């Protein structure tokens, strides 16, 4: 093979003589063979033509022979934007390698408009799908060569938390790794595949704060949230993340997002705690190879879920979590401890904006139960919301009253609360509304706790979580701090987003 | 060009006639050109031979012409292990793309022993270096095609923390992502590039616990730590991590490790707090594109440094950290608060193994100052250990006593401590040995703190850290728990290792 041009000339003459057309030619430097691609039908004719042409050299051992490899396919990427773009070949071959496709031969001429690879025919469908996906060819804006280092963020909900989040993304410089491309509200959405500029995001936030809907704005499109999500997902996004900062039953949206290739970050507890959708969400994430991040659903920005995961990944066993995860009820029992009547404390909490419009939504303990269920699932608790013993602070007789009637009758509860608080104090304890979480059982309600313990000195609306583990057994690991509020909740969401954006 | 074989035959005949040898041939499928690589010297002759051979077709417009591209180089990867290995091409082209090298032409024949690419000559040195590094060709065991998903861990130090760490890695299943390949002690090392088996690691741990040195064991090699590190680094490791669980001045070793391409995880405070090496280490990490993880240096397994980083990355500003980061001094002041005399409490701490052999090493406050400095640096404090005001519990007059003399004279301190403790109690406070850390100043010493505060109810050897930030301003974010001990320290180290192993 040392005189390649002579060999090549004779080989191609022989093929021309037989009228055989050639699709791909490859001869790597210093390699003593030439690879020629022909159709399967022409293979035998080509082989015999070459064998005849080189019969003397084969006889003398100068040339080893003619080998035919059947059952192969050629897959090529073609595009005028490829020339001069480093990274196209890397992405192409990485897609093939990830799909475990072996490459038999490769050719790319100097025009750089086409890279052809020969692969086993059986691998062809998988190879085509992998390459198609790698370049986002089924998506709007797909086919570009550059690799994006950032993640594209789609916000579901643009209330207080959503707006705090966009401000934090801008202020912290996080937009360089987490770029906001879409914002969805109940009425419609705003989207820009290249990223919504920080100034435009701030203007949208100002408009929302002033009571306007996204669909009513200049670049707003009217659509139901699911349609908005689907329209956005038609674009070739870079590692897209859907961030749910609503308080709605968004499970079906989240499932759709994961099926469409998005990771999900939640501040919204509802879809997690719902018995129908909660366990399903994790399963769907696993099936789709997506990540579901939930730090902000418990304790807002406090590192609660992350701490549980860190303990578990290092092989520790979280045996028990005691928590006061409600700022509203924390405030209430702090006031009771200071001698404030129950009704006065509830009304104060309401006027400070700590409660829902109907304070019974907080006093029922359901919010605490939801958080306890989310923690319980991380420990292996397999029950549902209905399996949790929840002690409501609203007597059954008052559950069906109107809002006004309830507030009017509140003082009727003062005397009995006063007695309980005094009895607790007499024993050196204080009352707390506590969630107790283990693998086996989750209980939510009022307990008396040592006044000189970390739970005893809890103040204001602070949350507290105490983790008793195999390693933190004598004394638990305790985390305390504000567990509600737009800024700290948004910070918890942003930490999750950056964890996803940083992971390759 | 439709009749490729005819064109090819004529082209190669023309080149053969001129005696021109060809290094690479490439024609991608459906592409209407053939790329032929010849030496620069032969380029003109080749071009004119081809122009002459195809003069009629060029004149008629059937063939566009002959283009010569000069100043190119051919780079090839060659190896008999390449055939049938998906991923070789991907790694090759990813290395070229990362080095921003544009690929002009590609050829790989069906023998799969050689991939040749033509690149601009100016890119050749960078391309060669990048490909060399990607396949670890300068390392023992380099040149393999498979991509490894795991990280290779080298342990520096195999005392209690190191042994707890290896046990946790085995028990938690972390060895699948973090494989122990080397263990270094003062006397030598054990190394296996394919990973030291879990059973062998356990046997090594048992031997060390029994007082034997690594160099004395069957597979132990005698070497100074730096030589051990260099010998290990000669191997082609997968994302190697050096884990320092010594208590020595290891800065020069850590610098060497980072220069050799290793990430570093520390449980060892010394090199970080040293004024000469501390800031240098971060700079060297940045220069070498390496990560330096330090969670276990403060509060052992408690998420202290991670929490600071999370607050900061979400744009919060950590204004002030108050901490009781010494279990020894925490125990001491707990006992004092219960009325135990100072000397009795110190001796009890010593007999429980809470103190160093000479309790003055703890009572001096230097250990707390080191931790405070590490926290301070994260907040932007630019001073050194000597800029920290440290209140020692050892009177100057007792600093130069022998160990025995010091213990004998301890009771002379009891009366004054008793007075201070009683005075504090009378004001509703308790004494704590506290570090106060801000951007501007770091102060370490005894203060009286509200008995009904989180610091006031701190018990046993627990550590506590309170972060006052722009967002956690009314009440700080507080983290409490065991801050020393082999198991929780190892867990902190393992969390850092897994963070590195998980990051791509």
Structure explained in plain terms:
The structure is a homodimer of 504-residue chains. With 504 residues, chain A is of the alpha/beta class. Chain A is 39% helix and 19% strand. Chain A has helices spanning 4-17, 43-53, 55-60, 88-98, 124-134, 160-172, 198-209, 225-233, 251-259, 270-273, 278-287, 305-313, 327-337, 342-351, 360-363, 366-379, 403-409, 414-426, 486-502; strands spanning 24-27, 35-37, 72-78, 103-108, 114-120, 151-156, 178-184, 188-191, 221-222, 241-244, 263-266, 292-293, 318-324, 389-390, 429-437, 442-450, 462-469, 477-482. In chain A, the strands form four sheets. A seven-stranded mixed beta sheet of chain A has the order 9-8-7-6-10-11-12, with helices on both faces. The first copy, chain A, has a six-stranded mixed beta sheet with strand order 14-16-15-13-17-18. Chain A starts with a helix and ends with a helix. Chains A and B meet through helix 1, strand 1, strand 3, helix 4 and strand 4 of A and helix 1, strand 1, strand 3, helix 4 and strand 4 of B.
């Amino acid at each position: 093979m040392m005189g390649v041009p002579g060999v090549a000339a004779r080989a191609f003459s022989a093929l021309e003589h037989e009228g055989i057309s050639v699709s791909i030619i490859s001869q790597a430097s210093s390699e003593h063979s030439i690879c020629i691609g022909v159709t399967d039908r022409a293979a035998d004719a080509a082989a015999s033509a070459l064998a005849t042409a080189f019969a003397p050299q084969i006889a003398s051992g100068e040339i080893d022979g003619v080998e035919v490899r059947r059952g192969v396919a050629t897959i090529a990427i073609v595009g005028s934007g490829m020339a001069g773009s480093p990274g196209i070949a890397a992405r192409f071959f990485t897609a093939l390698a990830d799909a475990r496709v072996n490459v038999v031969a490769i050719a790319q001429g100097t025009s750089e408009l086409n890279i052809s690879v020969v692969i086993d025919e059986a691998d062809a469908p998988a190879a085509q799908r992998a390459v198609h996906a790698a370049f986002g060819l089924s998506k709007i804006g797909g086919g570009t060569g550059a690799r994006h280092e950032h993640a594209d963020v789609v916000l579901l909900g643009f209330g207080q938390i959503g707006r705090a989040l966009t401000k934090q993304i801008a202020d912290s410089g996080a937009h360089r790794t987490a770029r906001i491309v879409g914002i969805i509200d109940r009425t419609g959405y705003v989207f820009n595949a290249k990223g919504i500029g920080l100034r435009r995001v701030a203007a949208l936030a100002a408009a929302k704060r002033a009571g306007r809907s996204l669909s009513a704005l200049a670049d707003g499109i009217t659509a139901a949230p699911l349609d908005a999500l689907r329209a956005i997902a038609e674009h070739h996004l870079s590692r897209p993340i859907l961030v749910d900062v609503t308080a709605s039953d968004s499970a079906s949206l989240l499932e759709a997002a994961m099926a469409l290739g998005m990771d999900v970050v939640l501040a919204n507890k509802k879809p997690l705690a719902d018995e129908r959708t909660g366990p399903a969400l994790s399963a769907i994430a696993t099936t789709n190879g997506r990540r579901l991040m939930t730090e902000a659903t418990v304790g807002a920005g406090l590192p609660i879920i992350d701490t549980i995961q860190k303990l578990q990944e290092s092989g520790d066993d979280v045996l028990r979590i005691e928590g006061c995860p409600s700022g509203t009820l924390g405030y209430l029992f702090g006031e009771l401890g200071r001698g404030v009547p129950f009704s006065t404390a509830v009304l104060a909490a309401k006027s400070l904006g700590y409660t829902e419009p109907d304070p019974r939504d907080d006093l029922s303990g359901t919010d605490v139960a939801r958080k306890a269920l989310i923690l319980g699932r991380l420990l292996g608790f397999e029950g549902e919301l209905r399996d949790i013993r929840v002690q409501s602070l609203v007597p059954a007789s008052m559950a069906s009253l109107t809002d006004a009637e309830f507030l009017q009758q509140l003082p009727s509860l003062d005397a009995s609360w006063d007695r309980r608080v005094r009895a607790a104090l007499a024993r050196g304890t204080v009352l707390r509304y506590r969630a107790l979480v283990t693998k086996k059982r989750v209980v939510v309600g009022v307990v008396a706790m040592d006044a000189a313990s970390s739970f005893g000195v809890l103040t204001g609306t602070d949350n507290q979580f105490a983790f008793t583990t195999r390693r933190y057994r004598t004394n638990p690991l305790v985390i305390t701090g504000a567990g509600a509020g737009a800024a700290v909740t948004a910070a918890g969401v942003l930490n999750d987003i950056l964890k996803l954006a940083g992971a390759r």
